[in-house]
Design the sequence.
């Protein structure tokens, strides 16, 4: 049975409340003082985009800049040597690159414990790299890895809307629902993301998720595999792989199995990535991580889509290989 | 009309094979099937006139762009700006999607959308391109396989855009790709070269004979 809407809504609120502590320092090559400038500290929502922080970061770091002429949208952020893509939400970037252990009710190496103790959860999150230490740069923009922002924020908006349209297409087989949103609704959708306002977001998102006369076909999902999991001798692409390169896997997964059983995360992963997820019920080599938590394989895809999607409508699932 | 990833792969293979057998390869520099895991895509590389890389200095140059192949060959390949067109299957939309990126641009950065048109679309065709909204907007995005920033023609209206050309027929994958190139590709300057179009049209009947083309 599908989860009751009260649980869906409660889980969605929890996810929207998720946040991460960030410590952002100015790259020494952009800093006019020899000793490092003070870091900018902030507790920031996992579902939000780092690009929205730039005006605040710029005000903070402007006095320390070697070149005071640069604008806020020339900046870019990195974690170690990985430039952080503006169009990935913070929580996804953290799950992909921070190396943090996901919160896990059933951590690997332990037998199939039915009820995990609170101690377990704490132990598995104890080493979290908090605050997450990022660097802001104003020079040497990595054009071959990042899309540069613009003063009006159009790039961010376009990319977001494209993703929302794609999610709609995956759910319904057409982008009609998004296209038929009123101007006010589509403006409000983007505003709710910028302001991190769940109530405003729901007022539009509920229209997207429940279009009249349409039946949900597929759950929008992107699966991110780290370089180590996607080494591939058959690759014939001439470009050299950049630090932080991910293999992104997408597939249309029906909501029901041929047996009419509901599609679970386990059955979906087993279909899409059988070599990494050879079992539908037991995690052997890797864990699927969403919003900092290892997902249970028994979770139904339709429930996940309603409760745990990012603001663009996608489940962005990071695959973390067992250490 | 949609196309599965397997059908698209078949179509792209035919395009690549037919291209390799052409004698007159003037329009495109290279056509290559590339692969990563189970994803296969076709990369078409086209040299751009160096002057179109900097459209604000020599705006009239791009009018002769199409006939300028001889001039292009005289410059060294490494120095010429290149347009790289990748045809990739979209699992969400179940249609081919065109990604365009650039190499050897003087500035090292992706062009603005205005510069992109300046470089890719001959000025004679540019007015009709103002209606490109009909096909889907062109925006910068992340290439789904290489991860590098690339322009793409948004695929949400590709099916509708193909309908007039298909006229309700079911076509073979290679013909689908050719029609798609003529519709979506043409909007960003990726036109099917005439010798290739001729070959694709004849391909079904006289695929073995290359004599006629070599006479041209």
Sequence:
């Amino acid at each position: 049975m599908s989860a009751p809407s009260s649980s869906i809504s409660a889980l969605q609120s929890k996810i929207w409340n998720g946040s991460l502590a960030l410590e952002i320092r100015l790259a020494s090559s952009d800093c006019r003082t020899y000793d490092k400038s003070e870091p900018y500290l902030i507790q920031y929502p996992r579902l939000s985009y780092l690009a929205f922080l730039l005006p605040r970061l710029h005000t903070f770091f402007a006095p320390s800049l070697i070149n005071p002429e640069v604008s806020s949208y020339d900046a870019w952020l990195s974690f170690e040597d990985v430039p952080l893509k503006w169009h990935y939400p913070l929580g996804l970037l953290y799950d992909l690159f921070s190396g943090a252990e996901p919160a896990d009710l059933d951590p690997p190496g332990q037998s199939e414990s039915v009820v995990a103790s609170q101690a377990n959860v704490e132990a598995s999150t104890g080493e979290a790299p908090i605050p997450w230490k990022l660097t802001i740069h104003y020079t040497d923009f990595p054009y071959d890895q990042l899309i540069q922002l613009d003063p009006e924020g159009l790039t961010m908006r376009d990319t977001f809307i494209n993703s929302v349209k794609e999610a709609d297409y995956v759910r319904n087989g057409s982008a009609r629902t998004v296209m038929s949103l009123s101007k006010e609704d589509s403006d409000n959708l983007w505003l709710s993301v910028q302001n991190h306002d769940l109530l405003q977001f729901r007022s539009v998102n509920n229209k997207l998720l429940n279009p009249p006369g349409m039946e949900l076909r597929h759950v929008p999902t992107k699966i991110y595999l780290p370089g180590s999991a996607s080494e591939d001798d058959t690759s014939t692409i001439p470009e050299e792989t950049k630090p932080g390169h991910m293999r992104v896997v997408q597939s249309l997964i029906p909501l029901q199995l041929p047996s009419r059983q509901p599609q679970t995360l386990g059955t979906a992963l087993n279909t899409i990535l059988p070599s990494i997820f050879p079992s539908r019920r037991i995690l052997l080599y890797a864990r699927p991580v969403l919003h900092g938590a290892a997902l249970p394989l028994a979770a139904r895809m339709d429930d996940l889509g309603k409760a745990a999607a990012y603001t663009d409508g996608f489940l962005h699932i990071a695959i973390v290989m067992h250490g | 009309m949609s196309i599965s990833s397997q059908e698209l792969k078949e179509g792209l293979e035919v395009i690549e094979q037919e291209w390799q057998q052409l004698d007159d390869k003037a329009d495109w520099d290279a056509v290559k099937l590339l692969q990563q895991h189970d994803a296969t895509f076709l990369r078409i590389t086209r040299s751009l006139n160096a002057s179109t890389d900097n459209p604000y200095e020599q705006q009239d140059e791009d009018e002769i762009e199409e006939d300028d192949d001889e001039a292009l060959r005289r410059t060294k390949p490494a120095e010429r700006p290149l347009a790289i067109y990748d045809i990739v299957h979209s699992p969400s939309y179940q249609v081919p999607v065109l990604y365009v990126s650039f190499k050897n641009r003087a500035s090292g950065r992706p062009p603005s959308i205005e510069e992109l048109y300046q470089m890719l679309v001959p000025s004679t065709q540019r007015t009709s391109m103002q209606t490109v909204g009909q096909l889907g907007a062109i925006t910068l995005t992340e290439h789904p396989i290489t991860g590098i920033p690339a322009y793409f023609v948004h695929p949400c209206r590709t099916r509708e855009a193909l309908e007039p050309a298909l006229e309700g027929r079911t076509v073979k994958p290679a013909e689908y790709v050719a029609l798609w190139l003529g519709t979506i590709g043409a909007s960003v300057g990726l036109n099917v070269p005439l010798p290739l179009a001729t070959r694709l049209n004849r391909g079904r009947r006289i695929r073995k004979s290359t004599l006629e083309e070599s006479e041209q």
About this structure: Residues 82 and 103 of chain B are 5 Å apart (CA to CA). The longest helix of chain B spans residues 5-20. Residues 55-66, 205-216 of chain B have pLDDT under 50 and may be disordered.
